Amino acid sequence: MNELGTRLKEARIAKKISLEDLQDVTKIQKRYLAGIEEGEYSTMPGAFYVRAFIKQYAAAVDLDGEALLQQYPIEMPVKEPHAHTTTPTTYTSRSRSITRTAPSDVYSEVIPKVLVALFIVLILAVAWYFYDASTNGASSSDPIEKGLGVPYEEPASSVQEKPDKPVKEETPKETEEKQPDPILIMEETQGETTTYSFQGANPELEIAASGPSWVAATDENLQERLSKAHVLQAGETEIIDLSDVEFIRVRIGDYSNINLSLNGETIEYAQQTKPQNIVIQFKVSE
């Protein structure tokens, strides 16, 4: 009779432990545990593993394995294991899980990152839109429009203040005399400024637009002589009375769209500059 196996089995049953539970505790395959209870040691790798399995079994059911082996030595197998024995296969787990990354898992990791990147780009685009809108709003007070010229800027060297001219007292005889014909002469060009001199009575400047262009006209006191400095559109005309000024400075954005005439005489452009200044100095008629 297999008294060792019977003792171990009785202890297991007394503790209400199944062979499956014992297998999980000791990590010894169920068939080896059943072989110990039945005294069938031939299926085991060798005497060393039989003794080791018995001790593990005994410890799991609260028995002294070494004492049991000394008490029942005849139940040990006589055959020694061969030099090359097969390593016993102990129970490790009932199933092996293999982790594989499914395509859906890859998408679930990549898509949130893509969405976050798109959200950041959208925020930057909205911020740039409002920044650009605020910049354009701040510059809307500038009278210049794209492609229509530049606003008036007074260069330091282009206009010089002229000294006060002595007022010539006119006699009744001189007043009655016939006024000389008006004379318009181009004096010089410097940079983007062309200077003319005009001699004649009651000068009147006509500014006619054939297309859009920014126009401003100021006198020696830097006072605007137009209704306002602005962009003239095609068909618009401004007439300025210059009888009370010493000179006039006209700032033109696009000269090709603006026709100037002084007392009916057309002022020819001496240069093709965009923008450019036309300065007219008025001389007292002799």
TrEMBL record:
HTH cro/C1-type domain mapped to chain residues: 8-42
Single GO MF descriptor: DNA binding
CDD domains in the cross-refs: HTH_XRE (cd00093)
Transmembrane region(s): 110-131
Keywords associated with the record: Membrane, Transmembrane, Transmembrane helix
Pfam family, one: HTH_25
Chain positions covered by the region annotation Disordered: 139-183
InterPro entries from the UniProt entry: Bact_Cytoskel_RodZ, Cro/C1-type_HTH, Lambda_DNA-bd_dom_sf, RodZ-like_C
Listed Basic and acidic residues bias regions: 161-180
PANTHER family assigned to the protein according to its UniProt record, in alphabetical order: CYTOSKELETON PROTEIN RODZ, PTHR34475
Protein name listed in UniProt: Transcriptional regulator in cluster with unspecified monosaccharide ABC transporter
Species name: Planococcus versutus
